[in-house]
Design brief:
The protein has 588 residues and is α+β, with helices and mostly antiparallel strands. 32% of the residues lie in helices and 20% in strands. The chain contains 15 helices and 18 strands. α9 packs parallel to α11. The radius of gyration is 27 Å and the shape is elongated. The chain starts with a helix and ends with a strand.
Length: 588
């Protein structure tokens, strides 16, 4: 009773310590600085036991009970078979579980009654691959706890429940750490933390592989839509502005408006006072302008765009000063960066930045005109015209050739024939692959682009991916084991043996939102949805089925969902049916 009186006195005289969302029994509304999480939690049962060290059944009994659906994480005093892990003087049990797909969150462990009523120490290892969950921190495989703790120890209560973890993972390994100890486990559940948002966009065709790729890209971005939009859920839990553009295009195609995008754009703006470069890279400030243009095209939120005007104008003036009299960009300070695989090709990067700067001024012209700043719009347009006279050598870099095609510095047909299609998807990257596909679409080579999607992004699926990776090379697949298996001695470990730059070996993220480009591309070019007025007030439906016989799907707009179906007859003629909400005009 004394504690209750003290609590109510604290509430009465210290109201700033309690939340508005606390129950009414607390008697006061909270006026403090709490923030509210927009995510929900779901609990997932493991689907299989990948591996165990059980001493021929002496160290672990009834492990299969962990695969049965539990009772919502509730401890129970019942007499039924449950998993028991027992250590001896010198042998310690361990078990590796597979939850079936990559998720963001942690695990919940529900313990049973055992002989000793003392806490039990365990080691927990999360992994995006089997090999990562079986690894140790550091060493030649490069496993880390960067950004998120994925290898840690904890104590479990006797007959209780504990939750731990905040990472991206599919696999979890549990080790008993102390000798002559017994641990009863009623349940081990994954705690899946995510935004509960509907998939308003959809894509379905007679090619199941393309359908799966579309959904995998959508799911990859969904996992990264936390309080802000990240690039990776295990590593790179940051708002990276360049990386954000493919994610924004996927959000437009799948989820429609979501406040995670403006929140992230505003965060980058607010923590980067001019003349600083976003994320310390000049190209990422360029991407901020391009994203603002594309977000407005799809969502049509003029009030939000007006809030960006001061920063946008200041950034554009800064960029105008970075173009010399010949039209060549002179970006300085911050890394001159396109993406990681292009890093050794300095000449190609220079060409790519010239094209990206030109695209930025094209976007700036459009945005300033919308905002009524005709003087700045004219300066951007004049500088864009000047820059078109300076055509650098792409040095056979596919990233640069793609940007040059999209900016108009190089014909899309020549960019594709000479560079992008050379070797098929060899030399593609998970980030800039989207712009390579866009350049191929501009060249009218939709069939070739679809084949590249099937090979490159489909290759990740063939290696056990349930989300798309930070980087990928088709050569890695040679004699490699998939990520959902223990790696045999005669096979390559596709997770631990590859990677470069900041993502060497197991530090490599296997859920990276910048790799979602095919999802947006398939909706844009195969389903054929092209907004031609801000906020999707007018949409052009221009399907390109390639070798597909039919495709159907939906596309979210601020006015509602558009339903589309295309069917190709024996002569190649496409019949299209569209159902659009009021406020959306369809043009074919």
């Amino acid at each position: 009773m004394k504690k209750i009186i003290i609590l109510f006195m604290f509430i009465r005289f210290c109201p700033d310590t309690f939340s508005q969302n606390l129950p009414p029994v607390f008697g006061q509304e909270y006026a403090g600085k709490a923030f509210h999480d927009s995510r929900i939690r779901s609990y997932l049962t493991p689907l299989r036991i990948v591996w165990k060290h059980d001493g021929d059944g002496k160290l672990i009994t009834h492990p299969e009970s962990l695969l049965a659906k539990g009772n919502n994480g509730q401890s129970e005093l019942v007499d039924k078979p449950t998993c028991v892990m027992r250590s001896s003087d010198n042998d310690y049990p361990a078990i590796l579980l597979d939850f079936g797909k990559e998720i963001q969150g942690g695990i919940q462990l529900v313990t049973t009654a055992t002989d000793k009523q003392t806490p039990v120490k365990i080691r927990v290892r999360f992994g995006e691959s089997v090999s990562e969950a079986m690894s140790n921190i550091g060493g030649t495989q490069g496993a880390t706890n960067d950004h998120a703790m994925r290898d840690l120890t904890m104590e479990l209560p006797w007959l209780g429940v504990a939750e731990i973890g905040n990472s991206g993972f599919r696999f979890v390994r549990i080790d008993l750490l102390e000798a002559n100890t017994q641990l009863g486990l009623k349940e081990i559940n994954a705690v899946f933390t995510y935004r509960d948002i509907p998939y308003l966009g959809s894509f379905r065709s007679n090619d199941e592989r393309l359908d799966r790729i579309w959904m995998t890209g959508a799911y990859t971005v969904h996992l990264n839509m936390q309080e802000y939009i990240w690039d990776g859920i295990k590593r790179d839990r940051l708002v990276w502005l360049g990386d954000l553009h493919p994610e924004v295009m996927t959000v437009n195609a799948v989820f429609g408006y979501n406040d995670v995008i403006p929140k992230s754009l505003d965060l980058a703006r607010d923590i980067t006072p001019l003349p600083g470069w976003m994320n310390g890279m000049c190209s990422y400030s360029l991407w901020w302008v391009i994203i603002q243009r594309d977000w407005y095209r799809y969502q049509g939120d003029l009030a939000y765009l007006k809030k960006q005007q001061d920063y946008l104008a200041g950034l554009l003036h800064l960029l105008l000063a970075k173009v010399d009299a010949t039209g060549q960009e002179k970006l300085d300070g911050g890394g001159r960066f396109l993406d990681w695989p292009s890093s050794p090709n300095e000449q190609g990067i220079n060409a790519g930045l010239q094209a990206l700067m030109l695209i930025t001024f094209q976007a700036g012209t459009e945005l300033c005109s919308i905002l009524g700043d005709e003087d700045l719009a004219a300066k951007c347009a004049q500088t864009a015209t000047l820059m078109q006279k300076c055509v650098p050598d792409h040095n056979q870099l596919k990233q640069a050739a793609a940007l040059m095609a999209l900016s108009g510095l190089l014909s899309a047909e020549k960019a594709d024939t000479d560079v992008i299609s050379a070797g098929g998807p060899k030399g593609f990257s998970t980030f800039y692959g989207y712009y390579m596909l866009e350049a191929q679409a501009k060249a009218g080579r939709y069939r070739e682009a679809m084949d590249n999607i099937r090979q490159y992004w489909g290759g990740m699926l063939d290696m056990g991916a349930t989300t798309f990776w930070e980087d990928f090379d088709l050569d890695w697949m040679h004699n490699a084991a998939p990520v959902d298996e223990l790696v045999p001695p005669d096979k390559k470990d596709i997770h631990a043996d590859y990677g470069a730059y900041c993502y060497k070996n197991l530090r490599h993220s296997l859920c990276h939102g910048w790799a979602s480009g095919p999802t947006a591309w398939l909706s844009q070019h195969v389903l054929g949805v092209q907004p031609i007025e801000p906020g999707c007030k007018k949409i052009r439906i221009a399907p390109h089925l390639g070798d597909l016989q039919w495709v159907e799907g939906t596309f979210p707009t601020p006015h509602g969902v558009v339903h589309i179906k295309h069917t190709k007859d024996a002569n190649g003629k496409i019949t299209t049916k569209v159902k659009a909400p009021k406020g959306v005009k369809i043009v074919k």
